[in-house]
Amino acid sequence: MVFERTIQLIGEAAFERLQQTRVILFGVGGVGGWCAEALVRTGIHHLTIVDFDTVSESNLNRQIVATQQNIGCSKVEEMKKRILSIIPDADITAIDCKYDESTAGEFNLGQYDYIIDAIDSVDCKMRLIYEATKTNAVLFSSMGAGRKTDPQQIRTAEFRKVEGCPLARALRTKMKKSGLLPQKKFQCVYSQEISGEKGTLAPVVGTFGMTIASLVIREIIGN
Fold first, then answer.
1. 116 in Cβ contact with 216 (< 8 Å)
2. Sign of the torsion angle spanned by Cα atoms 69, 73, 74, 77
3. Measuring CA to CA, which residue among 80, 83, 121 is closest to residue 103?
4. Residue 115: strand pairing partners
5. Sheet holding 114-117: strands in order across?
6. 25 lies in a domain?
7. Rg over CA atoms, the chain
8. What's the pLDDT tens digit per position in 168-218?
9. What's the CA gap between 32 and 35, in Å, rounded?
10. Which of 40, 98, 151, 213 has the smallest C-beta neighbourhood within 10 Å, fewest atoms?
11. CATH code assigned at 87
């Protein structure tokens, strides 16, 4: 049985809650791809993944979806294919779309229990956070994972209490100027490591993704 070890640890009732929970994940690149796979391997059955990008050679150093064989292919379609090769009966919806101001209205975020933000763009991230925090869904957001080398400096905190993250700082500044302020509190994964040179490493983005997946899973099963 695929989930035998999971059920032994958390019990049947908690596993059933995982199976019934509906999750939408925006961004299946460095952070989001690892997160998506961890969620489904643990028992999340209903998962919607959203991304507009294609796999490129530069993704090979850190993105779980990227292989030499699928360069140029849609990330969400390749991520869906990968997940179904692991858990064939998983309910995976792949949406090949860029989430931004022009497409935000196409998403009924209120139908989900959890919303995961793994978007890179500040403007798109700000819009998603604003719209997500208007719903009853629980939002978890990834702050900047680039230019980091030490996964042991990754932390979690409520958005307003995130310190030492340039992306979080830029978001808060832009939110105040635009008026698109979060409508409720939400938890973030971030790194307190001082940013280095341009670049991104698999151990860091992977830990970001796994940490978000863990936050979702532990809340569903009751920590």
1. yes
2. negative
3. 121
4. 24, 139
5. 91-96, 46-51, 22-26, 114-117, 138-142, 187-191, 154-158
6. yes
7. 17
8. 999 999 999 999 999 999 999 999 998 777 889 999 999 999 999 999 999
9. 5
10. 98
11. 3.40.50.720
